[in-house]
Sequence to fold (393 residues):
Amino acid sequence: MTSPEIASSRARFRSRRTLQFTESVIREMTRLAIQHDAVNLAQGFPDFGAPEEIKRAAQDAIASDVNQYAITWGAKLFREAIGAKYRKWHGIDYDPEREITVCCGATEGMIAALLAVTNPGDEIIIFEPYYENYGPDALLCEAKRKLVRLRPPDWTFDPDELRRAFSLKTKAIILNSPNNPTGKVFTRAELQAIADLCQEFDVLAITDEIYEHIIYEGASHIPIATLPGMRDRTILVNSMSKTYSVTGWRVGFVLAAPDLSDSIRKVHDFLTVGAAAPLQQAGVVALNLPDSYYEKLSVEYQKRRDLLSQRLEQAGFRCYRPNGAYYVMTDISGFGFKDDLSFVRHMIENVGVAAVPGSSFFLDSNAGTALIRFCFCKKYETLEKAGDRLRRI
Ligand SMILES: Cc1ncc(COP(=O)(O)O)c(C=O)c1O
Fold:
């Protein structure tokens, strides 16, 4: 075989599944930021330390040889701590033996849940703009995305548009509140409208609640599972990543009725076997932190939100003020650039600040081109440094 023939034969080693999506734009921005020494306000991970007590608990667990596989669906003490936390915070009971599954981050929780409940050709409703993983998740399940727009400035949805998205083929709706990238926290009335449609069309709610403890100005996080008729129709996905500033630990969990958990556990077992055992032990310490920890988390992030928003506005951005999560979506129409990608590239290469182009949160890459997302889960000095550089735009 000649070299070109050999090269072209390599194409048969690419599955059709992988040809349908590209690598994560957010992680690509992080790489570009490193290359150009830009302040990275693209990828949502803190650049400050995790709480001392949970780091110590992880070290102790390794030193005392919690170093072998935990039970596939999660260490018993950790599952019990998760159950106790949901009882305390949301007044909802999940049986740690049959309804709680520990997995490798919300990322695994979400795809394991989707693989467990969908068949090829099923429809999944997603609010758009959306966290980019949901796209490849749906494609890997060979499910069809039905999108419902969240519209600025409040990122509300049109109830008629939502109703039109439901059909006999709909298997699930993905609900991420507090929301990445918009910062929207869905209200009880909005959740009720979604819950009513789920019940009318016999559809599951698969929720991504990883920002539940990062909320501002009196907004409250309501798991849709707590609404009447929704407990056994909800697959609740959460994680330690954002609440305890340990995105690299890869520890998440999925709460669902026993029949759903059975299927999710099967997928989880063969995808990853389980999450890191010593980190699950440290998770018990994390989930038992006092209420003051969570209060401080929101207060701290609100200060960072206000600092970054002020600096962005001074530089000419229009900010959509988030009620939750740690991102601020901005409008860049005033700058006169061709689109979001050229603007972000200019920012990384010439200004020294990285952010995420808005179009990466939409299925149609022509949408969201006037939007840029910044994250503010960074040290004050990092945000100040970015603020100073933003004057160069
Ligand atoms: C909405 C949302 N879900 C899930 C994740 C990933 O969560 P994990 O680290 O638990 O896999 C992120 C990370 O940014 C996110 O923003």
The mean pLDDT is 96. The pocket of pyridoxal-5'-phosphate is lined by residues 44, 105-107, 131, 176, 180, 208, 210, 239, 241, 247, 252 (CB under 6 Å).
